[in-house]
C-alpha cells in the first residue's frame, strides 16, 4: 500500500531527533498533526535540538513522552486482544456503524466517503460480504486537490478498493487556489467516494438502501 509521502518524510525527521517545530518549518505539517502521528513513537532529541533549548527540560520531556509511548503501546496490545476474532455479525454491525457515521442518508443513494484507506477497505468488504454486492456494483470517484498526482491517487485507491479501473468515475478536482499547504498536505491522496450502482437489480439498489435504513433504525432504536 502506498503511504502518505509527507508522513514518511516527517517520520524520517522525527526519528532523526527533530522537534515538531523544526519539522513544521521544514515540510509545513501542523504541529497538532505531528503530535497525532507520533504520539506512540519513541523520541530522542538530536544535538541540534538540545542546543536550541535547555538540556534539562528537553530530557524531562523526552522521558515523559517515551513513558507515554510505552503506555500507549501496552494499551493498544490489550485492546487488540480484547477485540478478538470477528464473526460475520461483528462485521455486519461494524459496517453498519460506519454507514451510520459516514454514509449518505438521502435520495435513496448508497455512498460512503472517507480519506482513510482502511475505512474505505472496510466499506468495500461490508458491501460485498454483508450486502451481497460485487465489483460491478461498486464505483469509485476521487476528490482531489491541485497538488495531488492523479495517477498516483488512482493507483493508491485501486489497491485499497480492488474494483477494476473501469469502475473509477471522472475525478473531481478542487480548483481553489487558496488552500493552505498544511491543509493540502493532510490529504495527499484526496478522498474516495464509494457508491453503489444496482445494474438494474432493485435488490442491489433502492431495495438494499431501504433495508439498510431498517438496519440503522433497528440499531439506533435500541440505544
Can you describe what's shown?
- By secondary structure, this protein is of the alpha+beta class.
- It has two domains: 5-83, no CATH class; 88-220, no CATH class.
- Helices cover 54% and strands 9% of the residues.
- The protein contains ten helices and four strands; from the N terminus they run H-H-H-H-H-H-E-H-E-H-E-H-E-H.
- It has helices at 5-15, 20-27, 31-37, 47-52, 55-83, 88-102, 117-129, 150-161, 181-185, 206-220; strands spanning 111-114, 138-145, 172-174, 191-196.
- Strands 1-4-2-3 form a four-stranded mixed β-sheet, with helices on one face.
- Helix 6 crosses helix 7.
- The longest helix has 29 residues, at 55-83.
- The protein starts with a helix and ends with a helix.
Summarize the structure.
The chain is an alpha+beta fold and 223 residues long. The protein has helices at residues 5-15, 20-27, 31-37, 47-52, 55-83, 88-102, 117-129, 150-161, 181-185, 206-220; strands at residues 111-114, 138-145, 172-174, 191-196.
List the helices and strands and how they pair.
Layout: H1 5-15, H2 20-27, H3 31-37, H4 47-52, H5 55-83, H6 88-102, E1 111-114, H7 117-129, E2 138-145, H8 150-161, E3 172-174, H9 181-185, E4 191-196, H10 206-220
Parallel strand pairs: 2-3
Antiparallel strand pairs: 1-4, 2-4
Helix pairs in contact: 6-7
Defining key terms:
alpha+beta, globular, 223 residues, 2 domains
Amino acid at each position: 500500500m502506498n503511504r502518505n509521502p509527507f508522513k514518511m518524510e516527517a517520520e524520517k525527521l522525527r526519528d532523526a531527533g527533530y522537534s515538531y517545530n523544526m519539522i513544521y518549518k521544514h515540510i509545513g505539517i501542523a504541529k497538532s498533526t505531528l503530535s497525532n502521528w507520533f504520539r506512540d513513537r519513541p523520541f530522542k532529541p538530536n544535538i541540534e535540538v538540545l542546543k536550541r533549548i535547555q538540556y534539562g527540560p528537553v530530557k524531562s520531556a523526552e522521558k515523559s513522552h517515551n513513558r507515554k509511548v510505552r503506555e500507549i503501546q501496552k494499551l493498544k496490545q490489550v485492546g487488540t486482544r480484547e477485540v478478538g476474532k470477528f464473526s460475520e455479525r461483528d462485521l455486519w454491525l461494524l459496517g453498519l456503524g460506519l454507514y451510520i457515521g459516514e454514509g449518505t442518508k438521502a435520495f435513496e443513494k448508497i455512498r460512503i466517503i472517507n480519506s482513510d484507506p482502511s475505512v474505505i477497505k472496510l466499506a468495500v468488504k461490508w458491501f460485498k460480504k454483508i450486502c451481497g454486492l460485487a465489483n460491478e456494483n461498486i464505483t469509485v470517484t476521487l476528490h482531489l486537490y491541485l497538488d495531488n498526482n492523479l495517477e498516483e491517487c488512482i493507483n493508491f485507491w485501486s489497491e485499497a478498493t480492488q474494483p477494476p479501473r473501469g469502475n473509477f468515475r471522472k475525478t473531481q478536482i478542487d480548483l481553489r487556489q487558496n488552500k493552505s499547504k498544511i491543509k493540502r498536505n493532510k490529504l495527499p491522496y484526496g478522498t474516495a467516494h464509494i457508491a453503489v450502482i444496482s445494474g438494474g437489480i432493485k435488490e442491489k439498489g433502492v431495495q438494499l438502501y431501504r433495508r439498510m435504513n431498517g438496519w440503522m433504525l433497528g440499531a439506533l432504536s435500541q440505544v
